Amino acid sequence: MAFRDLLYGAYGRRLEKSLDSAALPRHVGIMVDGNRRWAKAFGETSAHGHRAGADRVVEFMGWCADEGIEVVTLYLLSTDNLRRPAEELAPLIEIVEDCVARVAAARRWRVHPVGALDLLPAETAGRLRRLQEETADIRTGLVNVAIGYGGRQEIADAVRSLLREHAARGTSMEELADVVTVDHIADHLYTKGQPDPDLVIRTSGEQRLSGFLLWQSAHSEFYFCEVLWPDFRKVDFLRALRSYAARERRYGA
Length: 253
Known about the structure:
Strand content: 5-15%
Structural class: alpha/beta
Number of strands: 6
Largest sheet: 6 strands, parallel
Shape: globular
Radius of gyration: 19 Å
Low-confidence stretches: none
Helix content: 40-55%
Protein name: Isoprenyl transferase
Strand order of the largest sheet: 3-4-2-1-5-6
Function: Catalyzes the condensation of isopentenyl diphosphate (IPP) with allylic pyrophosphates generating different type of terpenoids.
Keywords: Magnesium, Metal-binding, Transferase
Cofactor: Mg(2+)
GO molecular function, one term: transferase activity
């Protein structure tokens, strides 16, 4: 085991040196998938897998900081996850809370919760808002923590916010219909003012978005990795960056 780790370490350092910093993504979205399957393979509970996944998230954020990634969006808890049985959901929410707190404690990332916080327990929503306030002064990096998040819900919320804004101005529906653009909607997304994700990574072998950043990922590059999230290593991340850097981005063309 130690020898294999030594080989991977040497390979990772060589791979890291080969990356062109100018070709790396500014914004990386990561779908941390496979915690439950990882735990099941060891005969453990889902909570055990989620804890291992949370540890990996903290490590991953360190890797992103090392590579100079400016913005990271972590898909930690979807609106679909909120339908899970209470005995599974309660520890999951607690683990996610602790995970975000650990990322915030590193003082390298400004925390920005994205999602329908009103769907979460009041204590959880309050803690996330406090972590956002406590890290508001950090300018080295921004992490969007997608908790209680759904891409369709985000778009619906953006349109609702846009309508309310124009209603307050006295704009009629006919007038709004004549002038509304995609930029107007984008200005009301949870990630307003941020660059769209350049690279979206999903672990566990699944090859679908599952509602993640539906609007923002229109021109993103995607990287699907077979590794379950708790087993995701820095070398896997570096491979994703290498793959991204080698692509010719066409932005939908």
